[in-house]
Each structure stands twice: as structure tokens, then as C-alpha cells.
Write a structure and sequence with these properties.
Blueprint: E1 8-10, H1 15-23, E2 30-31, H2 46-59, E3 67-77, E4 80-81, H3 88-98, E5 102-112, E6 118-129, H4 134-143, E7 163-167, H5 170-174, H6 178-187
Parallel strand pairs: 1-2, 1-3
Antiparallel strand pairs: 3-4, 3-5, 5-6, 6-7
The structure holds thymidine-5'-triphosphate.
Thymidine-5'-triphosphate is lined by residues 12-14, 16, 33, 38, 71-73, 75, 84, 105, 148-151, 153-156, 173-175.
Keywords: Cytoplasm, Hydrolase, Nucleotide metabolism
Active site: 72
Catalytic activity: dTTP + H2O = dTMP + diphosphate + H(+); UTP + H2O = UMP + diphosphate + H(+)
Length: 192
């Protein structure tokens, strides 16, 4: 007799999150992005911001009888939260700020089980970016890879070669920390 498993709903539009879930053996049965206001609150720290948004995206989706997973990634320099860049000028400001600097990436994951229990976890990664030349900034901006990425870069693409060192979770930087995600799902009874 094979036990059936409740469906998994991914409350995210990010194709990276879908791919990472699939890679760890938890392919989403449904993609249902949650559209919420992602502006930071006054005085909110980057880690608080990531946690609030992941829980907010989860709360925005109601799927009875399903596991639901939501996540949020925030790039921070000190207490400063960098935007998810939609315009080239915004991405340029982020790259100039991150050039030669240490920064952190926080990714919060929130999961709700079919019985209504919910839990969340936060992954914190410290990274150092090399000092970028004008030519590197210009060609990265031309690549368009910064579009829709927190902090104006994606470590999984060309900008991976700008990262000198990383302590924490590589998959967390890409958008879904797979260790924490598996722990959350397992803790809520999801069978891999
Ligand atoms: C820093 C960094 C971020 N990112 C991505 C991860 C997230 O998809 C995105 C941050 O925005 P998020 O708001 O976390 O996610 P999203 O808008 O892509 O999807 P949704 O809100 O529907 O869940 O930046 C990378 O892909 N690579 C990186 O190196």
C-alpha cells in the first residue's frame, strides 16, 4: 500500500525556487504566486523584513488540504535593505554599493501544512564581492541578469564570478535554502 501525500503549492513566481524544490525531491504540484506589498516598514531590520514577507506571502494563499511554501530573499549592506531591481539605474546603484564590500543575503522560508500548522526558518549568508571595474559594471548591466533580483545581481549567473567568498547557504542566496526547506517540510510531516 502506498500512502498518498498532500499536494505542495509553491507561493512564488520564482523559477529558481521551483527548480530548487524539484532538485531536492519536492516538486511543486501547483505554482500560485502571492502578490503582496514588499515595501520595508520603518525601522525594520533586513532579517525581520525577509521573515515578515515570507509569512505574508504564505498567509496570502489559501489552499485547503495542501502544503504551501513561500519565501523571500533580501540583500542587505548593514541595516540597509537593497531593492529587487526592476530598472537599470537601480541595479547600477546596487552594484556600485556592493562593489568591494561585504554584504548579507537573508532568505526566509515559511510553510503551512494541510492541518494548518505553520513554521518558518531564516537562512543568513555573508558574502564578499570583488571591487568591480567600470567595464564589469557596464557589461553586467547590459546582460540584464539583474532584472527582478534582490540587490541587483544573481550569483547563479555571471555575477557568480564577482563573489570572492561566501559563508552560509548558496541555495539561500539563489532564493531557497534547501537544507532549511527540507527541515521545515519534514517537520510538518511532508514525506520526501
Ligand atoms: C541575491 C540573489 C537573488 N536572487 C533572486 C531570488 C528571488 O527570486 C529574488 C528576490 O525576490 P523575492 O521577492 O524574494 O522573490 P521573487 O519576486 O522572485 O518571487 P516571489 O515573490 O513570487 O516569491 O532575487 C537570485 O536569483 N540570485 C541572487 O544571487
Amino acid at each position: 500500500m502506498t500512502a498518498s501525500r498532500a499536494p505542495l503549492v509553491l507561493a512564488s513566481a520564482s523559477p529558481r525556487r521551483q527548480a530548487l524544490l524539484t532538485r531536492i525531491g519536492a516538486p511543486p504540484d501547483q505554482i500560485a504566486p502571492a502578490d503582496i506589498d514588499e515595501s520595508p516598514l520603518a525601522g525594520e531590520t533586513p532579517r525581520e523584513h525577509a521573515g515578515r514577507l515570507a509569512r505574508g506571502k504564505l498567509d496570502a494563499r489559501d489552499h485547503p488540504g495542501c502544503y504551501v511554501l513561500a519565501s523571500d530573499t533580501v540583500v542587505a549592506v548593514g541595516r540597509r535593505i537593497l531593492p529587487k531591481t526592476l530598472a537599470r539605474a537601480e541595479a547600477e546603484l546596487c552594484l556600485r554599493l556592493l562593489s568591494g564590500r561585504n554584504h548579507k543575503v537573508f532568505t526566509a522560508v515559511a510553510v503551512r501544512a494541510p492541518d494548518g500548522r505553520a513554521a518558518s526558518k531564516l537562512s543568513e549568508t555573508r558574502l564578499k564581492m570583488k571591487p568591480l571595474s567600470e567595464a564589469e559594471i557596464a557589461s553586467y548591466l547590459d546582460s540584464g541578469e539583474w532584472q527582478g533580483k534582490a540587490g541587483g545581481y544573481g550569483i547563479q549567473g555571471r555575477a557568480g564570478a564577482f563573489i570572492v567568498s561566501l559563508t552560509g547557504s548558496y541555495t539561500g542566496v539563489v532564493g531557497l535554502p534547501v537544507y532549511e526547506t527540507r527541515q521545515l517540510l519534514t517537520g510538518l510531516g511532508y514525506r520526501f
